[in-house]
Write a structure and sequence with these properties.
About 35% of the residues lie in helices and about 20% in strands. The strands form four sheets. Strands 3-16-15-10-9-8-7-4 form an eight-stranded parallel beta sheet. The protein binds flavin mononucleotide (FMN).
């Protein structure tokens, strides 16, 4: 990235439990980053590391269309985690690793055994960190429930941590009344960072056809409307856990990004904004953060993490 003049003196690099990010931004899982070439494009556009689509133990078709609808302040999606399965994606991970691109593998399963098997395969393929998707509202069974259940969250996190040396990020759901006990449970289970958050459950109705627009009726809200909700969770977790927090939800501009850092995020993920704009958003946000730091006589992104709690 070619920042000019003063901006070259600003340090935007952060460390997430051993995963070193040259810039503090990653793509959010599942939004466009569904193949090695697309993930590489995001890295070249200024992502510090890239995150795969959530991979399950078997391939999944997901829900029938319509699965995405634009709503006020964002998108509703009910993709239902379509993915080619862990085994299919291992070669894409190897490819990215050979290109020197730090890759975070996002994965989900419905049994602890499958979570463990997948984490072993992803580590062997060359993933540099894992993101445990406990929070998708579109999957039933154990994994769908556990993001709202501290006991399952701790149990699954611990089981995976016992089998992998990789940094483990646990991605949580905003569909809870209190995220703090769940974040504490993930931390007790050995999580190295928490990603907050996945999408917020919602729906939309077509008044002409007089029926829900999404085939699955309910979907997950992402985009600007989600930002105040996820930001609140980052703030609350910062006051209650010690591990790093990765902010995610409605980040479109460098100003949104700065809010997350001030609330306590050490890194951020961008989803819907890539879908509705362009990959150049990574560079624009990196540059905006560097300029903000420079304008405030600061030299390092780490100086603003959690700063709003002190004022
Ligand atoms: C089309 C679409 C697909 C998604 N797929 C996944 C996924 O596979 N795994 C996951 O953890 N989150 C998934 N998400 C959630 C995003 O990673 C992110 O948590 C959420 O969209 C909030 O961020 P945003 O407002 O920047 O989009 C998906 C979101 C969208 C819009």
């Amino acid at each position: 990235m070619n920042y000019q003049g003063e901006l070259t003196k600003i340090n935007l690099a952060v460390d997430l439990a051993g995963l070193k990010l040259r810039y503090p931004i990653m793509n959010a899982s599942g939004v466009l980053g569904i193949s090695a070439p697309l993930l590489k494009k995001m890295y070249n556009a200024g992502a510090g590391a890239v995150i795969t689509k959530s991979l399950g133990p078997e391939s999944r078709l997901g829900h029938p269309n319509p699965t995405v609808v634009e709503v006020e302040g964002g998108l509703l999606n009910s993709m239902g985690l379509p993915n080619p399965g862990v085994d299919y994606f291992l070669s894409e991970i190897k490819h990215l690793k050979n290109e020197g691109i730090p890759i975070v593998a996002s994965f989900f399963a419905s049994t602890i055994d499958d979570f463990i098997k997948s984490s072993i395969k992803l580590e062997e393929a060359g993933a540099q960190a894992l993101e445990l998707n406990l929070s998708c509202p579109n999957v039933g069974g154990e994994s769908g429930m556990c993001a709202s259940d501290p006991v399952s969250t701790e149990k699954i996190t611990k089981a995976i941590k016992n089998t992998t040396k990789l940094p483990l990020f646990v991605k949580l759901s905003p569909n809870v009344t209190d995220i703090v006990p769940i974040a504490i449970a993930a931390e007790s289970g050995g999580a190295d960072a928490i990603t907050a958050t996945n999408t917020l459950k919602g729906m939309s109705i077509d008044i002409d056809f007089k029926k829900p627009i999404l085939s699955n009726i309910m979907g997950g809200l992402s985009g600007s409307a989600l930002k105040p909700v996820s930001l609140r969770f980052v703030w609350e977790m910062y006051e209650n856990i010690k591990i790093p927090i990765i902010g995610c939800g409605g980040i479109f501009t460098w100003r949104d990004a700065i809010e997350y850092f001030l609330a306590g995020a050490r890194a951020i993920e961008i989803g819907t904004a890539i879908m509705l704009n362009d990959y150049k958003i990574f560079h624009e946000i990196n540059e905006g953060i560097a300029r903000y730091l420079s304008d405030n006589d600061l030299k390092d992104i780490k100086e603003i993490i959690g700063l709003a709690h002190k004022s």
